[in-house]
Amino acid sequence: MTKRIAIIGAGPSGLAQLRAFQSAAEKGAEVPEVVCFEKQENWGGLWNYTWRTGLDQYGEPVHGSMYRYLWSNGPKEGLEFADYSFEEHFGKQIASYPPRAVLFDYIEGRVQKAGVRDLIRFDTAVRWVEKAGDQFNVTVCHLPDDRTYTESFDHVIVASGHFSTPNVPQFDGFETFKGRVLHAHDFRDAMEFKDKDLLIVGTSYSAEDIGSQCWKYGAKSITVSHRTAPMGFDWPDNWAEVPLLTHVDGNTAHFKDGSSRDIDAVILCTGYKHHFPFLPDELRLKTANRLATQDLYKGVTYVNEPALFYLGMQDQWFTFNMFDAQAWWVRDVILGRIEQPDTATMVADVADRIAREDAGKDDYDAIWYQGDYVKELIAETDYPSFDVEAACQVFKEWKGHKKAGIMTFRNNSYTSVITGTLAPAHHTPWKDALDDSLEVYLKN
Amino acid sequence: MTKRIAIIGAGPSGLAQLRAFQSAAEKGAEVPEVVCFEKQENWGGLWNYTWRTGLDQYGEPVHGSMYRYLWSNGPKEGLEFADYSFEEHFGKQIASYPPRAVLFDYIEGRVQKAGVRDLIRFDTAVRWVEKAGDQFNVTVCHLPDDRTYTESFDHVIVASGHFSTPNVPQFDGFETFKGRVLHAHDFRDAMEFKDKDLLIVGTSYSAEDIGSQCWKYGAKSITVSHRTAPMGFDWPDNWAEVPLLTHVDGNTAHFKDGSSRDIDAVILCTGYKHHFPFLPDELRLKTANRLATQDLYKGVTYVNEPALFYLGMQDQWFTFNMFDAQAWWVRDVILGRIEQPDTATMVADVADRIAREDAGKDDYDAIWYQGDYVKELIAETDYPSFDVEAACQVFKEWKGHKKAGIMTFRNNSYTSVITGTLAPAHHTPWKDALDDSLEVYLKN
Lengths: 444, 444
Known about the structure:
The structure is a homodimer.
Chain A: E1 4-8, H1 12-26, E2 33-37, H2 86-90, H3 100-114, E3 120-121, E4 124-132, E5 135-142, E6 147-153, E7 155-158, E8 165-166, E9 180-183, E10 197-201, H4 205-216, E11 221-225, E12 239-242, E13 245-249, E14 252-255, E15 260-262, E16 265-268, E17 272-273, E18 296-297, E19 301-302, E20 308-310, H5 320-334, H6 343-359, H7 363-379, H8 388-404, H9 438-441
Parallel strand pairs in A: 1-2, 1-7, 2-3, 7-20, 9-16, 10-11, 10-16, 11-12
Antiparallel strand pairs in A: 4-5, 5-6, 8-17, 13-14, 14-15, 18-19
Helix pairs in contact in A: 1-3, 1-5, 5-7, 7-8
């Protein structure tokens, strides 16, 4: 009997898995029956923008964490698919920091070409997964008609992402603060904060980018509160970095150094959780957000249950191309082309990855660490080889460009590691480009 | 072996069930082992205020729909516990429309006295319930340590409420609206909308009360859009009722009659869903929000699986006292004091209730319909009898007071149907009372 494979999620990782199987089939391999369950009504995962926040039209947690006017915060040359270049999709090379709609279009282009949409059951939330003998029983709910059903699978591939469930700390005084307190996950439109004094808590990508957005769209001031260290970029004049928030009192925010500021709203850019409410303890990944996750052999196989895989659960420098490397590798395990070792060997592999990550001293070590990981996986499959070293160099340049100008770095261009073409300069500097539509972006 | 009972939720309904069993035990009955699973860290259900919106600290949907400055929108004389009066709790009679904190205190007082807190497993979300033979397997997650486990029960009582999962319609243009769009479920502080032009969609209690709050706290204007008919109260000058929203274009809202208004924010007061993502089809109640629900014999027993009960799933005139009537009745079924009939009889009971509700012509019929239901249940148990007819009259008076002045109705007083005492007039008219604390409310 043909094996049955369940993929949970049709975002970049789940779509990579669908494309991986389709690519093998295209080359003549016999592939198992694949079913992809997607909670949203369309594919694209986080890249599928929604105005909704909190719970969706079916009462399910909203997956999307993206906001209006979002442009890629890293160069597209670091994430290009090796089997589907930007030039193939758009018919020309495009500038390096596309807005969301442009990247969505690109992701979609590859899977439209692959013809895998029929394998996805949209509007279908996974409710519960259980092991039953050698099989996994997957219970799902088809949301539009509120109908649950259970099917059995030989493998489950969890590709539901880990930037959807917000980590939301409490600070004293939030319960009586007279304005909005929200997590980055619920941020949608910077215009809501025009002329406002905004407090941002956190210093990672969300803080940097949401702060920059709100600055660009006319916030009166941006105050960013850090736990450990300021981001240290050369910020505009109405931008300040301050120590950790201790509490708010009315509309006054107080910080660890005794200073205070009056604020109109608080955006908690405090990260996300790995959250799998549909999995019991024995199947559920528990890991910090790091490059070498806990309990995943080769970063994908759940060591306690090697018929179960997780895609894209690492913290990320590499994204789409890393998900591809993982998806091709998982496919080849399922197709019997790659044999997995015994548990002890898998556990040792995890420990080794963690030790090697921990030995790194800075972001550059981290970039090359993850580059090596991508190289390792693609060497074991037929995923098109590409110049991973050059992609690492792109990330390094990017960091330099951010350091040189946090509000200007998106005006730079990089060379594709897939096609070797240098990206054109964009027609408008990012800070003056208020229209984030695909049509306007492509007018180069 | 002692029976085991699972109660899902420690809000007013779940607490009523705990008190019902404790009351029987107090009188010498042998009662089963009761375990109550509560997702929140404290009891009180909706009455347990949180500043959080969307997802909570554990990534679970926030239960709370209540907001700051919320005062009861109905007289407390309509919801008083027959076994625990306001006078017993506060040591004196208090005014008729208490703010949230006062009602929370009252709810908590009864169960503190009953000593049932140890039966509740807090911070514990129910993940999945399945029938296995005569038993229910209930799988839960203890959220602080992210640990799942499964236990078996003879009965499950679903008391998780139905005013927590928002019903969120889409209107064209929301995806490009340059302000906040939120459901009433996520509304927290009216001060966020001070000096704003606010659009409210919907005409039920949330619309009426959130609009009134925002008016009280200084919104510039309130526009309420209705699908069927305006609420028709005598609104303040900066308040308008308009036909259904058709779309928004930039920050302009357009209505069915061709009129339009510029707005800063949209609050969708469009109701809630019965949502039980932890239940498979064969156990899951599917009903409209009405007085006579689908599939519940006597309004509580799930006809397809009579060992499963639902509390408080009706639309509500009566609240706390009706949950009590239901909880005492369910308890007596479980204790063997009440025998349930065969399925055909239960199904006929449901049909009869629906027909009788449908025959009602107005709100007054609805009030007495639900009053009769409460009477019917308490007549079959030892729940302290009270003057249900007088409670119906309180609701009728209340409706008259709202008609007479939507911003003044909370200044009225009613007579307790439990103790016969007339409530004192409150020291400050509602529209001038900006402090909603318990301490200030009780200064009468």
